[in-house]
Design a protein that fits this description.
Elements lengths: L1 H23 L1 H19 L5 H9 L1 H15 L3 H11 L1 H9 L1
Helix pairs in contact: 1-2, 2-4, 3-4, 4-5, 5-6
Amino acid sequence: MSVKFLLLLPFLEIVIFILFGDLFGFLNVIFFILVSGVLGIFILFPKSNLETLSKISENPIDWVCKRLAGFLLIIPGFITDLFGILLLIKVFRTFLFNF
């Protein structure tokens, strides 16, 4: 099932772009995609210091989930943005890993 989803993902992203473009307007959709990309860059490349390294060693799963969420937010599209936002919420992480 996951391979079929990955093959259909670009098609679904284009369809959702068109639907949200009709619903919210073209410029609003482009603005949302740009904002989510910038947010993804800030999440993927945070300022690192000694406290951050100690937090990584305490809970590496959170670190991996945040980096994966940042990567998904950089990819333009609403489905990948949704998965990226859900990865930032701790409650949904176990659900997404089981999926």
